[in-house]
Amino acid sequence: MAADNHEFTRFEDEYPIVVEGLVNRFGDQTVHEDLSLKVRQGEILGVVGGSGTGKSVLMRSIIGLQRPSEGEIEVFGNSITDAEPDEAIGVRSRWGVLFQGGALFSTLTVGENVQVPLKQFHPEIGPDLLKDIARYKVMLSGLPEEAANKYPSELSGGMKKRAGLARALALDPELLFLDEPTAGLDPIGAARFDQLTLELKETLGLTVFLITHDLDTLYEICDRVAVLADKKVVAVGTIPELLETGHPWIEEYFNGPRGRAAQASQARDERRKAQSRSRSMDKPTQGKA
Ligand SMILES: Nc1ncnc2c1ncn2[C@@H]1O[C@H](COP(=O)(O)OP(=O)(O)OP(=O)(O)O)[C@@H](O)[C@H]1O
What are the GO MF terms of this UniProt record (predicted)? Predict the structure, then answer.
């Protein structure tokens, strides 16, 4: 039946990333076996799992850098697994990636690093506009404007991450892939990076695929968390939903000493926010009877 005045949400709009039956093998080693995952539009999906469970391989498969042994991956409804490199070019411009360690070109300044994807996908843009866009992306990532003229070797670890983020944002992506963005940052730097990720997601309407070992990040900014274990995604959901599964790795991860500390810290944050909300509501409003 034809539906009038109904707004249809297409499947690929609701789930910009769909992975089905993914298998990744390296020689005798099977990293993924029948792995499936759907990422929802507009969410920050945290991806966790023990070391070597294949989180980075999963990300590399989704962005077309690792051809899987079997399975199907669609991004925005486009098959990544079947596409020839040239065919995928359109969809590639709709995502940005922050690799572990930033993966910046050491012989280019930060601004020039940001210009790399712009030049690749938009050769029509002239040098002045390229510089302006790069400067804007640098500032959007929370770096001072002058950082655009610095080389990666002149930056701290936290600044390098932000520079990598600026490059990931170069093409105004709808999807952002972050591979361990807070690894190696001090707790204050990590919390700031988390807040930046959240703000960018909210203001730019991004969907974020975020690989992390950082429990604070999971509690603070992730809408859902996908758990890799036993060669597949064993559960996806909010942290309370994950805990209901009773999976031994999930139990140990979230209920271990670090998990409990992160949980307690989030509960303290929530209390502080509630107190400050109620204090601001109690304040007498000037000029009102
Ligand atoms: N190109 C490759 N060739 C051979 N083996 C690989 C390749 N890439 C990854 N692997 C193997 O696949 C497994 C999963 O690697 P991956 O880097 O995805 O793990 P991870 O979950 O991201 O780990 P970590 O949390 O330590 O970063 C590892 O055993 C790794 O050695």
Answer: ATP binding; ATP hydrolysis activity
Cβ atoms of 171 and 126 within 8 Å: the answer is: no
Residue nearest to atom 16 of ligand 1 (CA): 54
Q: What is the pLDDT of residues 13-27, one digit of tens each?
A: 899 999 999 999 999
Q: Where are the domains of the chain?
A: 103-172
Q: What value of ipTM does the predicted structure carry?
A: 0.97
Helices within 169-222 (DSSP H only)? 187-204, 215-221
User: Which amino acid residue places its CA nearest to atom 7 of ligand 1?
Assistant: 26
Which helix H or strand E contains 106, and what residues bound it?
none
pTM for the whole thing? 0.87
Rounded distance between C-alpha atoms, residue 190 and residue 206, angstroms: 20
Return the SS3 of 268: helix
Q: What is the DSSP string of 8-33?
A: P--HHHH-SEEEEEEEEEETTEEEEE
pLDDT tens digits, one per residue of 161-207: 999 999 999 999 999 999 999 988 888 888 989 999 999 999 999 99
Pairing between β-strand 70-75 and β-strand 17-26 as defined by DSSP bridges: antiparallel
Residue type, 24: N
Ligand 1 site, CB within 6 A: 26, 31, 49, 51-57
Longest dimension (CA), the chain: 77
